[in-house]
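Problem: given the chain below (190 residues), write out its structure.
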Amino acid sequence: MIVISRNHHDSASRARDALARYAIAALIAVGLLGAASQAGAQGVAPNAAQPPSQASVQLAKQILQIKQADVIFAPLIRGVVIKTRDFFMQTNFMWGKDLNEVADDLIKQYSVRTSELSTDAARIFASHFTEPELKQLLTFYQSPLGQKVVAEEPKALDETMTMASTWADKLAEDVVNKMRAEMKKRGHDI
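Solution.
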């Protein structure tokens, strides 16, 4: 495994950590909406010319509520506020107390905006399915198996992310070794 030493107090480290959190949130969102892309691959194209009906959006909202999409969206607001706070903190760390208080207030103030994300996500989700398909999906997610999917899918995604991270570490080590060997052949000792 390649270990890169980093100081958790430096701004580059905070930026990498924030980026990692955003990447994880994006991957979870992709998993959440994975059924939509799978349907697209099976020939069910999104209807870009005509927006989904209000009934379809409402069905999609119910599906996303069952799948607990709000758990994904809530950290996004906090992440944006904290990233902005950290940006201003670099200007003058003596403002830390005030910036933390302002950040806490902004997180509370903007937290209500997750409903905007939920509505937009439902509209996107609904644009990939017909109303009858959304009804079938809702029925599925309300079933015992659907409830199990809701409960187990996040765990499976977490395990998959851990496995992918370990796999990427092994790949990185292999790439480093091969790159060193190739560079050594060219007279560069790295």
